[in-house]
Amino acid sequence: MFRTNDQMLCLFESYLAQLEIPEEPALLYAPITYSISGGGKRLRPLLLLLSAQALGGDVQAALPAAVAVEVFHNFTLLHDDIMDNADVRRGKPSVYARWGENVAILSGDAMMICAYKSLSRVAADKLPRVMEIFNDMALKVCEGQQYDMDFEKKRKVSVVEYIQMIDSKTSALLAGSAMIGAVLAGASDDDVKRIERFATELGLAFQLQDDLLDSYGDTALGKKIGGDILEGKQTYLMVQAMSRASEAQRDTLRTTHSDPALTPEQKIERVKAVYDALDVARITEQQISQRFERALAIIETLSTQEELREPLRVFARNLIGRKR
Amino acid sequence: MFRTNDQMLCLFESYLAQLEIPEEPALLYAPITYSISGGGKRLRPLLLLLSAQALGGDVQAALPAAVAVEVFHNFTLLHDDIMDNADVRRGKPSVYARWGENVAILSGDAMMICAYKSLSRVAADKLPRVMEIFNDMALKVCEGQQYDMDFEKKRKVSVVEYIQMIDSKTSALLAGSAMIGAVLAGASDDDVKRIERFATELGLAFQLQDDLLDSYGDTALGKKIGGDILEGKQTYLMVQAMSRASEAQRDTLRTTHSDPALTPEQKIERVKAVYDALDVARITEQQISQRFERALAIIETLSTQEELREPLRVFARNLIGRKR
Q1: Range of the domain at A204
Q2: Is A245 helix (H, G, I), strand (E, B) or coil?
Q3: At what angle do helices B159-166 and B127-152 cross, to 10 degrees?
Q4: Is the pLDDT of residue A222 over 70?
Q5: How many CA atoms lie within 13 A of B186 on its CB side?
Q6: What's the pTM value of the predicted model, to 2 decimals?
Q7: Taking 90 as the threshold, does the pLDDT of residue A221 lie above it?
Q8: Which residues in chain B are closer than 8 Å to A153, comparing Cβ atoms?
């Protein structure tokens, strides 16, 4: 018997709902409850639990670690929102916007401690290794956030630097979650490494897809297109375009977002015209497919039974939005 | 053989100097190196190591945990400085002043993770209990900081509430450090509880002394007097005075610090006149002595040899600045 992804998600949500957050002081703990109960896709805990299941582990025993990665992820969002001056998170006011900066800093700190508190409830004999993975993962996420902020002030970001940044900022947390699930399942070192590579490739595909959809998403879905272009953000499309552009195109890519003479629509149109000329949407799409296929292929190498691989495939397909 | 407090401090400093902090990204890690190498009295790691020694433990084996409490303490200062808009720390620009707020938030986060990274190097069989103490201690410190910020907006803070706040903000980290040292030494639950009470009483005495010296310190030592009064801060002297004051005196205590017609010297003089009339310096001095004596008495109850108690007594005397 194995759990489907939906069943796994329900199991996680019901366990998370039992998490006891103190009431006082209210300004410390209310933002934590607000963040954790604010929804989100629960990708990281789900991947942790599916990895534990895929490698023959006891899913119940992995729940405290699943809570830890979800709480840690929400903590990073809470502090990122201060750094990015972001007022909205998941359609609601961010903690920073609702309670102010000092509350967001301190309740974020407490939230990280809550993550470690949950993590320390895993089986005692597994704790040292789980802590090691968690700490390395957590530091990598901070490094990724710092590189992302560094890039805002950098004139030229190479494709390699960009991939390294998203590897830290996005993939590390998925890879760490998958590894912890595997370690708790008592998986071999080889399987732990395989599931790490699976989650890393998948995380990169996921982030590249996010970059692609921001400029080429389906407007029919009601998603706003071009936010990254208007902010002048470094994205995979931008760094690829910059690496291929002529001097004139490079100038357009660099200056358009801050040109006061243009409307938002004109800015988006102008940058996308360069993207189209340089074929970066297709290049990005290829990268996504390659990494997605590589992730799927790694699933086949895990030492496990066929029926336990399928939930991982479903997770991967849902994440990248593919039917097969 | 046992180590004197100076020897213990040297041992700690030389171990701390070996701590490897990565170089890149520089804006994430340079502030961590800057904070940790910025000095400080190293009270918490020293107490952790002295507790381990007093209860017959291997001091070397306690070093990773000693680094963890010191790094955690420095992390709290880093984030506190943002919340308090504090530009100076230990005579140098604070991380917040030198690198700005975003860097201070993120490098503080990374610093907390570094603390956990060091902590996880303790003996594997002790890690679950050590983590439990560390997490509870860390959350308590956050609670104390939140209560302290709450008090700024509160009209009336009772003496009991104030003691609870400093118990969390100041004593918890000392008590947790002492407990971790004891646990690593393999001490009995009773001895762990005793050393917790010892450090708690000592921490309260230390904070009350700090409050007292801010208003009644020796100006000959070059210390500025009256900072707390000018900021309108809640201190033990203030909450004691408020609990004993007449309506008129209460009014003076509440409004003096923000009275634009008065010079700083006049403000300090006016508030201290009320303190003197209500005898709060003597009351505070009594509280300090009581708690200090209680802490010393607890040392005598530890299941250990006489020569191992003495370093703890020396630590207590140095902390409170007493000869005997």
Answers
A1: 5-320
A2: coil
A3: 140
A4: no
A5: 7
A6: 0.96
A7: no
A8: none
- The predicted pLDDT at position B218 comes to 81
Strand partners, A93: A88
Contact (Cβ atoms closer than 8 angstroms) between residue A272 and residue A215: yes
CA torsion B116-B72-A81-A242 (nearest 10°) is -70
Q: How far is Cα B82 from Cα B89, in angstroms, rounded to an integer?
A: 11
The encoded tokens of residue B194 equal: 């005793």
Contact A127 B132 (CB under 8 A): no
Chain B residue at shortest CA distance from A77: B106
Q: What is the pLDDT of residues A245-262, one digit of tens each?
A: 999 999 999 999 999 999
Q: What is the pLDDT of residues B136-184, one digit of tens each?
A: 999 999 999 999 999 999 989 999 999 999 999 999 999 999 999 999 9
Q: Is B19 on the interface with A (CB under 8 A)?
A: no
Q: Which CATH number goes with the domain that contains B197?
A: 1.10.600.10
How many structural domains are present in chain A? 1
Nearest CB to B135: which of A83, A105, A113?
A113
- Collapsing DSSP states into helix, strand and coil, what is residue B241? helix
User: How do residues B37-87 score in pLDDT, each as one tens digit?
Assistant: 988 999 999 999 999 999 999 999 999 999 999 999 999 999 999 999 999
Instruction: Tell me the two tokens of residue B12.
Output: 């700690």
A120 with B132: Cβ contact below 8 A: yes
| Contact between chains at B147 and A25 (C-beta distance less than 8 A) | yes
**Bond from prior residue into A25 cis (ω within 30 degrees of 0):** yes
Contacts of A149 in chain B (CB under 8 A): 27, 102, 106
Out of A112, A145, A147, closest to residue B112 by CB: A112
Phi, psi (degrees; rounded to nearest 5) at A89: -140, 120
CB of B161 within 8 Å of a chain A CB? The answer is: no
Q: What is the pLDDT of residues B170-179, one digit of tens each?
A: 999 999 999 9
Helix, strand, or coil (residue A89):
strand
Nearest by CB to residue A142, choosing from B113, B127, B135, is B113
Q: What are phi and psi of B52, to 5 degrees?
A: -60, -45
Tell if the CB–CB gap between B116 and A116 is shorter than 8 Å. yes
Residues of B in contact with A135 (CB under 8 A): 113, 116-117, 120
CB contact under 8 A, B142 and A27: no
